[in-house]
Task: structure prediction
Amino acid sequence: MSDSSDTTYTARLIGSDGSEETVELDLIAGEPQKSFIRPAGEDSEEMVWQHDPDAEGHVYRQGGIPSADYS
Result:
């Protein structure tokens, strides 16, 4: 049986309002996810969360609403 620490990691989500939350995410091919979709909060729309490569650790910031036209 494999240890879950080999397949998951703890990510810090930082919302546009500065709120923070931690979640466990699955590694993909041994690497952290570049982005994922989940609700921004309780009863909220789904939001794209993008990895912040300049932050220390596994930090994700809100990247926008899936399928939204930002042009």
